[in-house]
Amino acid sequence: MTSSEMLSGPDLGGGLLHQLTIDREGDRTGYTFHAQDGGADAGGPSKGPPEPFGYRIPPTACTFGGPRCWHREFRLGEAEAPRVRMAYNRMRFVMAPMLEQRYGRRPPTIDAALEEIAGRLSEPARGPAFPWYVGGSTASYLLGAAIAPEDIDLGTTREGIDRIASALSEYLIEPAATTDWPRVGEVYAARAFVGTVRDGARVEWAHREGVPSTGPGEWTGDLARVRTEPVDFHGFTLRVTRPEYALLRAAEAGRHERIEPLVATLRTLGTDASLLEELLGASTLPAPARDALLARCVA
User: Fold this and answer.
1) In CATH, what class is 110-298?
2) Nearest residue to 20 (alpha-carbon basis) of 4, 33, 29, 10
3) Is 160 in contact with 127 (CB distance < 8 Å)?
C-alpha cells in the first residue's frame, strides 16, 4: 500500500495549483508533481492542461487534488528530496511561459537556449567530453529546414543523462530519474526549461531502460547507430541528427506543413537513401505513402 506525504503546496504557477508529494510503498520511494486547474484563486484559468509536458490524470481520484489532478511521477530515493523540490519549484515557476508556448503560440527561444546548453556541456571544468547530439525538429532546423522547433531534444548515453542534468541543474523542471514517458514507456530521463522564468525553451533527454532497440530510429539508445551531421553553431560544433528521421516522424504524425521544408533540406544536403529506406521499412505508413515519400527525396 502506498502512503504519500505532502512536501510542498498548495503552490501557484501558470494558473494551476501545484503540490509535491513523496510516495512510499514498501522499500520503494518516489515523488509526484500534482497540478489542478485552480481558477481565479490560482490566477487562472490556465492557457491549457499540462498534458503536453507528460502529466496524466490517474484512473482514481487523487487524495490531494481530487478527480481532475494531473500527475508526473518519478522513482528516486528519499535522500533526493532537495533535488526534486528544486525541480518542482522551477516547473511551477515556468509553467506560464511553457503553456503560452504550447497554447498561445509564443515562440520558444531555441537559439539562446541551445547556445547556453552547448556552452555548459563544453566547459572543461565539467569533466571529460561525453557523447551527445541534438535530435528532433531542432536538428533539422540547424541544418537549414524552414521549420519552427517547439523544444530541444538531446540524445546521449545513460551516463550522459546525469552529466547534462548536472550542467543544467538550475534549469531542471524534472529531476534525472526513472519515469514513464507517454508513447515511449519507462526511461531514465530529465527535462529542463533553459532561460528565464519568462522566456526560454523546453529541453528533454532520455535513455531507454533495458537493451537498446535494434530498429533504425533516432532514439534507440545505441549512439553508434544514430546518423548525424556536424553543424557550426555560435562558435560550437554540434552533432545533429539527419533530416530523414524528422521527415518520417512528420509523415507519421500527419504534420504535412513540415514535409516540404524537410524534403527541400534533404535535396540540398543529399538524401541518405539507405537510412530513409530503412526508416520507411520499419514505418507504419501505408506502402503507397512510403513509396511516394521515397520518390520525392531520391528522385
Assistant:
1) alpha beta
2) 33
3) no
**Nearest 5°: CA angle at 44, between 59 and 103?**
75
Contacts of 96 (CB under 8 A, 6+ apart): 13, 14, 15, 47
Residue spans of the domains in the chain: they are 3-78, 110-298
Per-position pLDDT tens, the chain of length 299: 789 999 999 999 999 999 999 999 888 999 999 999 987 777 778 999 999 999 999 999 999 999 999 999 999 999 999 999 999 999 999 999 999 999 988 999 999 999 999 999 998 878 788 899 999 999 999 999 999 999 999 999 999 999 999 999 999 999 999 999 988 889 999 999 999 999 999 999 999 877 666 678 888 888 889 999 999 999 999 999 999 999 999 999 999 999 999 999 999 999 999 999 999 999 989 999 999 999 998 86
Helices and strands of the chain, counted as H and E runs: 9, 11
The model carries a pTM of 0.94
C-alpha cell at 76: 528516486
Listed in order, strand segments (DSSP E) in the chain are 3-13, 16-25, 28-37, 70-75, 132-135, 152-156, 172-181, 185-195, 200-208, 228-233, 236-241
Residue 153 contacts residue 136 (beta carbons within 8 Å): yes
Query: Quick one: cell of 176?
Result: 534525472
Task: Give the separation between CA 208 and CA 219, rounded to whole angstroms.
Answer: 8
Report which residue type is found at 13.
G
Contact 114, 134 (CB under 8 A): yes
Q: What whole-number distance in Å separates Cα of residue 266 and Cα of residue 140?
A: 10
Taking only Cα atoms into account, the Rg of the chain, rounded to an integer number of angstroms, comes to 20
Q: Are 152 and 193 in contact (CB under 8 A)?
A: no
Q: Is 278 helix (H, G, I), strand (E, B) or coil?
A: helix
